[in-house]
Every structure is written in structure tokens, then in C-alpha cells.
Amino acid sequence: MKLTPCSTGLLAVFLILIFLAIILDDPVLLMAGTSVGLLLMGLCLQFLHTVEKTYRTISGSWKMEKSLIRQGRSNTIECTISLFLPCGYQVRYQDTIPSLCSLESGEDQTWTDSAGSQTLTLSYRFIPHYHGTICHEGGIITIQNRFFRSSLPLRPEKSSTPSVQVQPWPLFGPVEKRGSGKDLERIGPVKGYSIRQFREYLPGDDIRHVDWKISAKRGTLYIREYATPADEMPMVIVDLPDSGQEIDIQSFSRMVSSISGYVESKLAKKEPIRLIGISGPNMSDLYYEGYDMAHCLTIIRERIHPIPRTFHLFRFMMRSDMRKEIDKAALSMDWTEISRDERSYLARVREIRKQHMQEVKTTRFAHAMNTILMQRHFHEIILYSLCDGDMSHIREVAALAGRKNIPFRIRTPKGTDHRAQGLFSLRGEPVEVI
Amino acid sequence: MARTSLRLFSLLSGILIIFLGVYAFFFPDVQIYAGIFLFVLYFIIGLIRQHSASHQFFRFCLGESAAIALWFIAPVLGVISALLITGAFLNEPDILKNRNGVFLLALWTFGISLLAFMSRMIQHTLLPGITVLFLAGLVALALLLYEYRMIYHAGGNKL
């Protein structure tokens, strides 16, 4: 509850009269002050009572124009509020624009001061800047008279909460066409590659792979798609940020757009992909394999959000790095020109690292990733990450991919400063800035 | 309705001024002239048809000072003039148009009459003044809790 200038003035009069009465020791001033105080309190009580009564009469309904839109496209909210307003009161309703959305056009607030049954309507367009399901949270209703002002939330019923699903805007990068063009010609069916499926011709497809027989039968051009012997597919790993930390929403949104673009470009050609989620060194339950566009896009929309991390590597040193350090120490110790102190230091380092390697086994994360990579052979691994903070887990994945001879790339929305890379940041892993 | 109320309050103010004039004639005192002057000023300002909140508040303050001046002469005069002034002040924003408003004014009249009666018994104002401030704080706290309960039941405590 807020005081208007009128009630603030009354409060000031009350206090002035009381203090004057105490200073001047005058009972008349005390009584006059008390009467003003009583008036103020009575008005406040009456106001709150009226607000409570009015609030009970309020009912609101909200409607969204579309239930599924692309990120960056506008949608309309229509709102109708009906209420019974007593004399001398004014009501103002401000609709809460959904979080991470901006107002495009229209008015998001309305008011009336007419007594009796009233219906307030408003309509505005908003633009979502983030993917996911946006539930409308209603708005704030402010009831005021000449003396006081009170704001109360007005929320839609849980069962009738209007919502809109926001699909990330696809960011198409340079899309590599594996299995088409020259490569496909070279590795044709004679080399043991079977036809995986036929699909409709898309602009950009090699005309030499048109299956004329099926095209003639169906009346439209059909393309042969070949499968490799191992039916290789790309694996997209999404490094979900920690929900407990502040992230750059714009960068994250750009990353999701890039994932969406990559996935859509693959699935449009009916090429299967595997999508898995990690969050630092934690395996997420985000998993998809196949080429169902709608299902995969729903997963991207609903599941690719920051999640809480339960485990952190905290600048975990990789075993390969430890091995390198032990070898380096051994080589340096063989060198005769080093001092006694340096020699004892190197011996100590070697001892510590060896002991650590014997006692500490591989991480759960490395074990889980290794199991995934053992199951089948992927023709490439693309890891999407914000690349902020500790990146030991990314190096673990890169090392595992390297061991399996799988091309590995990191895509990040940020321009990482490679000069400042330390022991625990990326070291030589290919990074593409989205 | 508003115009009728305005006429009623103007009529009552006029009657009070005439009564004060007669009272001053029979019981001459310096303070009563100040009260009459302030009340006449209050009445004249009321004739200027400005319905803004600041104008009404200024008029109320003027009337309240007139009521205090009259209270010094006779508490009954003070109570009557304060009642008239407060009634006019509450009538402007349509508070007296509903039953609750009328009940509030009636209760307030009872309270102020009680205070007028009690003011004769009070010798010193220090302790009563502190008590009034303390009670005002308690009432303000109770009102805030009432509002908090209302917001909580409305389904939000983020305001």
C-alpha cells in the first residue's frame, strides 16, 4: 500500500500536531492531532476493506493469438478484465509482459474510474527473445482512491494459463554436405554402401543421384540416400550452463539458435543425428537419436535450458597431461646441467603425479562419455558450449574423441581469447565462433 | 448528488459562521475572532470551484486550524466545526457515497467527541502524546499485516 500526496499531508499534519502538543504541553493540540490520526487510520481501514471487496469481484481472461511461434516473431495477447468498482475509486491494470520478451506494439495497461460493473480490455504484441514455453503470468491490478493506492497480482487460473511455445530461431552456418556431391559419387553403391532411403529432391542436391524409376512412378523427383557401412551420424553435444550461475542470455540464445540451425539442416535432409546434453562434467538426461524433425525441435525448445550442476571438475588435471608432466620431469632429470634444487623439485612432481594416477581413477563423466563413444562410430562430434569457466570436461571429451579418431569441433558463441589459455582451458581443440 | 452535498455543507458552514458571530457578540474573546476569520476564509475558498486534491487538502488544513482555534474557546464548537470540515473533505472524493463512508464519519464523530470530553481531564501531554504515537504505530502495523494477508491470498508476495 502506498500513500498518495493527500494522505502523506494528513500524516504530516497528525505528526506536527502531536509533536507540537508535546512541546507546548497543550491538550487541545493533542486532541486535534489525535482526531486527524484517527481519520487517517479509519480511511486506511476503509480503503483496505473496499480493495478486498473489489478484488473478489475481479475476473480476468487472457488469450494468445498463436500457440507456437519462432523466437523473434511477434504474438498477440488479448486480455479482458471485468470487475465492480465502487464510487471514488480508480482501477489500473498493467499486464506483465512475459519474461525475456519485449513489447512490440499496443498498450499493456488500461484504467477506469467509472463506478459500477466495468470491463477493461487490452491487446498488445510481444516479441520473445528466448526459446521454451512461455506461460503468461497475468498482471498487476492497482486500486486507488484519493488517499491510498494498493497493487495486487492478478493471475490466470492454473488450468487456463495461456502459454506459447517459442521455437529457437535457426542460425544456419556453412553447412557441410557429407554423403553428397563428389564424395557420394566416389563411394557409390559399388563400394558396399547401401541405399538407406529415398527422399524428395531438395534444391542443392546432386541431380546424378535422382532415382528415375521411383521419380517416374511418383511423378516427382526422388533422391537416393546412401548409408555408410557403419551408418555413421554426427553427434551434437550440448554443454548446458549451470542454472546457479549468471549467464549471458544473448550468447546462450545464439548458441541454441545455432544448434537449431544445424539440427534442422540435417533433419531436413533426413540425415539422423544424435543429440546429447551435458552440463559441465554431469550427464544430462537430454537425449535424442533419429531424424524426426518435430520431436527433435521440441526437445531443443523444452530441454536446452540452464540446469543445476551437481558435480564440478574444478580445474581437474587430465591423466594425459599428468603423463606428459611425468615424462617431461623424467627427461629434465636426465639433463646434467640442472641444479640440485631443481632436480629434487622435478622428482617430487613426478612422485606426486604418479601417486595421483595410481590412486585416482578416471572420472564418472569420462567413463560415461567413453561408453557412449564405444557404442557406435560417429562421423563427427560437435560440442556446443558457452566456454565460460572451467573447461576441463570439454578437454576430456576432445581427448576421448581423439582416441577414437572422431573429428571434434567446439562451437561457441563467444570469441575466446586463445592467447590467455591456461593449463585448464582449451589447448589446441578446434573452436568455431558462431 | 455531489452538488446537493456541496450546497448542504455550504449552508451548514454559513449557519456556523452566523452562530460564531452571535457567540462572539455575547462572549467576546480574542481567540474567537481568529477562529471566525479562518472559518470565513475556509468558506470563501470553498466557493472557488476547484476539485483538485491539493486544493481540497489546503482547504481542509485551513478548516482544521479554524477548528483548533475554536476548540480553544469551547470544545463543542471545535467538534462541530471539525465535523463539518471533515464531512466536506470526505464528501469531495465520494467517500460518503457508500455506507462504509458514512459509518466511518459516524465513528470518527464519536471518537472526537470522546476526545473533546477527555481533553479537560488531561493536565500534561507528554505521556498521552507518546501513547498516541505508540498506538498509531501499532495500528499502522496491523493495517500493513492486513494488507500483506490480502496480497498473500491474492497469490503473490513479489510486489
Task: Describe the model.
The complex is a heterodimer of chains A (434) and B (159). Chain A has helices at residues 5-24, 27-57, 181-186, 212-218, 249-268, 293-303, 319-334, 340-359, 364-375, 392-403, and strands at 2-3, 59-64, 68-70, 75-85, 90-95, 101-106, 109-112, 116-128, 132-135, 139-144, 148-154, 163-167, 194-200, 222-227, 233-239, 273-279, 282-290, 378-384, 408-412, 431-433. With 434 residues, chain A is α/β, with parallel strands linked by helices. Chain A has four domains: 2-55; 57-167, Immunoglobulins (Immunoglobulin-like), CATH 2.60.40; 188-227, no CATH class; 233-316 and 363-433, von Willebrand factor, type A domain (Rossmann fold), CATH 3.40.50.410. In chain A, the strands form five sheets. A six-stranded mixed β-sheet of chain A has the order 17-16-15-18-19-20, sandwiched between helices. In chain A, strands 1-11-10-5-7 form a five-stranded antiparallel β-sheet. In chain A, strands 2-4-8-6 form a four-stranded antiparallel β-sheet, covered by helices on one side. In chain A, strand 16 (273-279) and strand 17 form a beta hairpin. The radius of gyration of chain A is 33 Å and the shape is flat. Chain A starts with a strand and ends with a strand. The relative contact order of chain A is 0.09. Mean pLDDT of chain A is 82; it is low at 175-192 and 418-424. Chain B is mostly helical. Chain B has two domains: 2-121; 123-159. The radius of gyration of chain B is 19 Å and the shape is globular. The termini of chain B are far apart. The mean pLDDT of chain B is 80.
